[in-house]
Design goal:
4 helices; five-stranded antiparallel sheet
């Protein structure tokens, strides 16, 4: 009896209300790819960036194309966010691939790398650190400040 081939069910940003089955990229097992990870896959004569939404099995004898590349080290969309986007696709009667693509910034939609989010945008200066102990925590602003100005 032939053994079924493990596949990835991928949502693509195309106006079709279905998922597409692909083999995992060469050298990567299907079980190692998590739901919510992005893949670059061949679609017609072009390559598209899609999101894995499930795992499946192809019947023996069916020819499937392999994904070109795994773009993320972990799931980019997961948990409550992914559940909400699935709900939104159903509510709007919109293809899930287009909804997921719309939820991503353009650079990620095109398969770009996830930017470094560990950087801080604001850092307390030395003047702020030295003034911090003198601030009155939990107190109302002094009269004459912005809040104390009359109309």
């Amino acid at each position: 009896m032939p053994v079924p081939v493990p596949t990835l069910q991928v949502a693509l940003p195309v106006p079709l209300p279905r998922l597409f089955d692909y083999l995992p990229p060469p050298g990567i097992a299907a079980a190692a790819v998590a739901v919510g990870q992005r893949l670059r896959v061949p679609f017609g004569h072009r390559a598209l960036c899609g999101v894995v939404l499930g795992h499946g099995e192809a019947e023996p004898g069916i020819t499937l194309r392999a994904a070109l590349e795994l773009l993320d080290t972990g799931p980019l969309l997961h948990g409550e966010l992914l559940d909400s986007l699935r709900w939104l696709a159903g509510y709007l009667h919109a293809p899930i691939g287009e909804v997921l693509a719309t939820a991503l910034p353009v650079a990620l939609r095109r398969g770009g790398p996830l930017p470094d989010t560990a950087r801080r945008g604001w850092v307390l200066s030395e003047a702020g650190r030295t003034a911090l102990p003198g601030l009155r925590a939990g107190k109302a602003p002094a009269a004459g400040g912005i809040a104390g100005r009359g109309a």
